[in-house]
Amino acid sequence: MKLTTRSRYGLRAMTYIAEQEREGRPVPLSEMADALLLSESYLEQLMRLLKRDHLVKSIRGAKGGYTTARDPRDITVLDMLNTLEGKFWLADCVKAGDCPGGFTNCPTRLVINRMNEAIYRSIEDLTLADMVEMSLAV
Fold first, then answer.
1. If we measure between CA atoms, which residue out of 127, 63, 119, 49 comes closest to residue 91?
2. Distance separating alpha carbons of residues 40 and 10, to the nearest angstrom
3. What is the pLDDT of residue 109?
4. Whole-number pLDDT of residue 120
5. Which of 28, 49, 63, 72 fits a disulfide with 18 by CB distance 3.0 to 4.6 angstroms?
6. DSSP letters of the chain?
């Protein structure tokens, strides 16, 4: 499985926002772009997605910027990836629920499905707060 740049950058942006939030301030888009070495226009697209799904909120004004919409302990990596990617799958046959070749018990599909489930289990309990702690420990 390969995450797109949208997911990688979105996770980095969310982590940065949550880190700055610990200092009690919203993060201006321009600051985030400079800190993460990303374009403002691309970050703006990501923020729009994250805002739509209530993962971030924006505060207008001179001291405005972005904050998390909920406590970082209540935002999972799975929440963020589902927003940034949609529900992701390791193979189309798992997503479709059946084998395109017509096999009823395809062993490859069964293994891929098991791998997909393991990935979901590993990130459904991992939170944004956990990511911040990992980031600060480095």
1. 119
2. 13
3. 77
4. 85
5. 72
6. ----HHHHHHHHHHHHHHHHHTTT--B-HHHHHHHHT--HHHHHHHHHHHHHTTSEEEE-STT-EEEESS-GGG-BHHHHHHHHH-S--SSHHHHHSS-TT--SS-HHHHHHHHHHHHHHHHHHS-BHHHHHHHHHH-
